[in-house]
Design goal:
globular, 2 domains, GMP Synthetase, Chain A, domain 3, CamS sex pheromone cAM373 family protein, disordered N terminus, 30% strand, alpha/beta, sex pheromone staph- cam373 precursor fold
C-alpha cells in the first residue's frame, strides 16, 4: 500500500491561486479540503488512500528553544536544509524514544549564548576542528524528549550541521569552491560529537544522547542535504559508544543523477509526466525530489503546476495525477504531491 503523508490529487494538497485581475476576482486564495460526507468523498476521490504517520505530543505551554531560534539566523538561505534537518531529527528520535511513551519539547539545555560560542570560528569555546580548512560546523539543533508526565527528561537528540564546501585560494589569488568528502565530514563530526557529549554531561548525566551528523547542501539549492551518521551516547557516558552510517541522498526528478542511479525509475517518471501532459489540454509542469536510502527510493515529493479554465478541470486533473502516481511509483514509499493551479 502506498503511504501518503500529504494528500493532493486525491484531493492531496490542492491550492487554488487566483491571479491578480484573473477570472475569479471575488475569491481569495483558498485551500480545497476533502468533504466530510463519505458518499460525496467517494465521488471525488480516486482511489482511497490511508495515511500512516505517528507524531509526538508536546507539552503545554510550548517552550521556545534557543537552538531552534538560532537555526533561522545561522542557516539563512538553507530553507530546504532547515526543514529536512528538523524532520529528520524527529524521525531518528523515534528509533530511540517512541512517540507512544515520550513527549517532544524544543531543546532547553543549550543556551543561545553557549550555542553562539560553540559555533564561533575560533576561541576557547569553539567546537570547530582546528585542522579544518574553514569553519565546518554551521549549526547545532537540540531536541528533548520527556516522560509522559511532562517533567522527567528521558533523552536528548542533537543535530550537527556541517558545511559541504569551503573556499581555497589559488596561486593567482582567486578563490575556488572545493567540496568536503563524506568521510572528511564524518571525521570532523565525530570529533565535534565527543566534545558535545562532554559538555552536555555537565548539564544532565543519566539520560542517553543521540547525535546526528547532517551535511548541508549549497546555499539556495533546489534539494536538501543529507544525514551522514547517527551516534549514541549511553547514560553517564562522555563520548559516543557507537556510530551508524546513513547512506542517504536527495535527487531531482528528472536529472542525470537520477538516470545514473536508477534508469528504470527515471524512465517511469518520464512516462508519468507524458501521461499527465497527454491527459490535460494545457501544459503541466511536473518536477520532483526523491529521497534515497541505500540507493532505494523511500520518499518522493512531486510539484505540479498548470493553468486551469474551470474548477472541474482542477478536480479531474488532481484525480488523474493521484491515480497515475499509485500505479507508477513503488508501493512502499512516502509520496507527497503538491499542486499549484492558476487561472
Amino acid at each position: 500500500m502506498l503511504r501518503l503523508r500529504a494528500l493532493i490529487g486525491i484531493v492531496l494538497l490542492m491550492m487554488l491561486l487566483v491571479a491578480l485581475g484573473g477570472c475569479l476576482p471575488n475569491q481569495e486564495q483558498e485551500e480545497i479540503t476533502e468533504p466530510d460526507d463519505p458518499a460525496e468523498q467517494a465521488q471525488r476521490v480516486t482511489p482511497t488512500v490511508q495515511i500512516e504517520e505517528t507524531h509526538y505530543a508536546g507539552v503545554s505551554p510550548m517552550q521556545e528553544s534557543p537552538t531552534a531560534n538560532l537555526l533561522n539566523d545561522r542557516l539563512q538561505g538553507f530553507r530546504l536544509d532547515r526543514d529536512r534537518l528538523e524532520q529528520g531529527l524527529i524521525e531518528i528520535a523515534k528509533e530511540f524514544f517512541p512517540p507512544d511513551n515520550h513527549l517532544f519539547v524544543g531543546g532547553q539545555l543549550i543556551s543561545r549564548t553557549e550555542g553562539e560560542a560553540w559555533l564561533s570560528k575560533d576561541g576557547p569555546e569553539s567546537l570547530n576542528p582546528a585542522d579544518a580548512p574553514s569553519p565546518v560546523l554551521q549549526h547545532i539543533l537540540e531536541h528533548n524528549y520527556l516522560a509522559l508526565n511532562g517533567q522527567d527528561l528521558q533523552g536528548v537528540v542533537i543535530g550537527v550541521s556541517l558545511a559541504s564546501t569551503y573556499e581555497s585560494k589559488l596561486e593567482d589569488g582567486t578563490e575556488q569552491t572545493l567540496y568536503y568528502t563524506a568521510d572528511q565530514l564524518r571525521n570532523y563530526g565525530f570529533e565535534i560529537a565527543d566534545k558535545l557529549a562532554q559538555r552536555l554531561r555537565a548539564k544532565v548525566q543519566d539520560v542517553p544522547i543521540v547525535i546526528a551528523l547532517y551535511q548541508l547542501e549549497e546555499r539556495q539549492s533546489y534539494r536538501p542535504g543529507n544525514f551522514l551518521s547517527v551516534g549514541y551516547v549511553k547514560p553517564n557516558a562522555q563520548e559516543v559508544s557507537e556510530w551508524r552510517t546513513i547512506d542517504e541522498v536527495y535527487l531531482l526528478f528528472p536529472s542525470p543523477e537520477l538516470n545514473h542511479l536508477n534508469s528504470e525509475l527515471s524512465s517511469d517518471f518520464s512516462g508519468y509526466v507524458r501521461r499527465i501532459q497527454d491527459f490535460f489540454p494545457r501544459y503541466v509542469g511536473v518536477v520532483g525530489t526523491g529521497r534515497f536510502v541505500n540507493e532505494e527510493l523511500v520518499e518522493l515529493n512531486l510539484d505540479i503546476t498548470t493553468e486551469f479554465a474551470s474548477i472541474a478541470e482542477v478536480i479531474q486533473l488532481t484525480q488523474y495525477v493521484g491515480s497515475e502516481a499509485l500505479g507508477t511509483f513503488p508501493e512502499d514509499i512516502y509520496l507527497n504531491i503538491y499542486s499549484t493551479f492558476a487561472p
